[in-house]
Amino acid sequence: MIVMKFGGTSVGSKEAIARTVGIVRSKQEERPVLVVSAMSKVTDMLYAISDAIEAGNSEAADSALVQLRQKHLETAAMLMPSDPLWREEAYSRINSICDGLKAFADAQLASGEKMTSKEKAVINSKGEYLSSNMICCYMNSIGMKTTWVDAREFMVTDNDYLQGIPDMAEIERQCPKVIDAAFATSAFVITQGFVCKAADGSEAVLGRGGSDYSASLIGMAIDAAKIEIWTDVDGVQSADPRRVTNTRRISRISFEEAAEMAAYGAKVLHPKTIEPAIAKNIPVLVLNSMNPEGKGTVILQSSFIEDGVRSVSSKEKLRLITVSQPVMKDASSLLTRIFAVFAEARVKVDLVKVSPTSIMVTTDSVDYVPAAVEAISEFASVKVEEDMAQISVIGKNISELKVALKTASDQLRDSRLVSVAQNDTYVNISFVVPLSTVRDDVQKIHTYLFGREE
C-alpha cells in the first residue's frame, strides 16, 4: 500500500479534482490510500463562520455557510453531469454536513456564549469531510470502486482539540484494521487529513496544515511502501519561489534536512510530517499535482544524501527575547527556570543562544508572551524585540559556512547569530535580522550560495 495526500489546491476545483483522481487511478496496482485536504479557501470560510459566531453576527455566519454549501454543490454538479445516481448521493452528503453545521452554528449563536476550542474544532474539521465525500462519489461515478473512511475511527489524539497530539500506539492498533477492511471491498480508499478524535471522544483537529501529518501517520501505521505528498509546486525548492528568484528543485534530501526545513520556515511540508516516516524509514515524495510527470523531491535516509547546502528559508514576525542577570553564574539553572516558565505559558521557542551574559530565544508565539515575560522578570531582566525574522541555511556538513555567510549580506554582518543546530553531520545555521530586511537578505544569501541562472 501507498499513501497519497493531496492538498487544497490539488482538490480546489473541478479540473484539479479530475486531474488528482487521474493520478490516483494510475497508482491502482499500489493500493493507494487517498488523504485529502479541504478544497482551497474552504478552511478560510470555516474560520469566517467561527469568527462570525464569536462576534454574534448571524448574518455573516449564514452568508459564509451559504458560500460553503454552494461551492461544493456546484463542484459536484460539474464533476458528475451525466451520472444522476452518484451526483445525488454527493448532494445528499454535502447537504447533510452543511445542515449539521448550520444547526450547530445556530445553537452557538443562540447561546450567546464564547466558543470553546472544542466547539471551534467541530467547525474547522468540516472542510475535509465535504471534500472527501464529494471526491469519493466522483471516483465511484467513473468506475473507481472507492470506500470512504472516517479518519476519526483511528486518528486518536490527546484532549487538545485544536492542536491534537497523536496517540501513536492507538493509531498503529486501529488504522491497519480500518484500512484493510475498506480494501476488502474496494480498489481505492479515501479518508480525511487534519481531522482526529480526542481522547474523550470529541471531534478534534491536528492543527492548520495537519493533513501532511495525517498522511505520514497513516503511512507509519500501515507500513506503507511510500508516502506521496502532492502539492502545487515541483518538489522542495532551495527557497520559497514566491519570494526568491531562481530557486532550484532539490532532487533528494534527508529526513533530518526536511524536518529542519519545515520547522524553520519552508512551506511545502507540515513540520511534523517527517517524524512518523522516520519511525518506519518510509520514503516521502513531494510531487506536483499540476505537473504529474515532474520528478519532484524524494526524502530518504541520510546515508543516501551527499554533503552540501540544501536550502535557505525564513520565518517572519518573530519576537526576540533576551534574558539576563547582573551576574550570570549558572546559565544552566537560569535556562531551566526560563524554560519552565515558557512551558507553563505555552510559549513555543525556535532558536536559543546562550552567552556569558545573556540567553536569547526567538518565538512566533503571540498571545502567551506577555505572561511569560512577566513571570521571568521576577528573577531576571527581560527585553523583547518585536518585528524580527530569522534566516536559516540548512544542509549537510556545512558548518564551515557560518563565517562566510556573515559576509554574504550587508545586513548579516551586523546580525546576531542565534543558533548553529548541529548533530553528527547536519547543520542549521540561523541568523536573526530585522523583519524589514529579511526578504532582501534571503535573496542575497540564496544568490551567494546557489548563484544566478544564466
- Class by helix and strand content? alpha/beta
Average pLDDT: 90
The total beta strand count reads: 16
Widest sheet: strand order?
3-4-2-1-7-9-10-8
How many H/I helical runs? 15
Explain what you see.
The model has no long low-confidence stretch (mean pLDDT 90). Helix 1 crosses helix 3, helix 2 runs antiparallel to helix 3 and helix 11 runs antiparallel to helix 12. The strands form 3 sheets. The chain has an 8-stranded mixed β-sheet with strand order 3-4-2-1-7-9-10-8, with helices on both faces. Strands 12-13-11-14-16-15 form a 6-stranded antiparallel β-sheet. Helices cover 41% and strands 22% of the residues. By secondary structure, it is of the alpha/beta class. The longest helix has 28 residues. It is globular, with a radius of gyration of 23 Å. The protein has 2 domains: 231 residues, Carbamate kinase (3-Layer(aba) Sandwich), CATH 3.40.1160.10; 141 residues, VC0802-like (2-Layer Sandwich), CATH 3.30.2130. The two termini are 43 Å apart. The chain contains 15 helices and 16 strands.
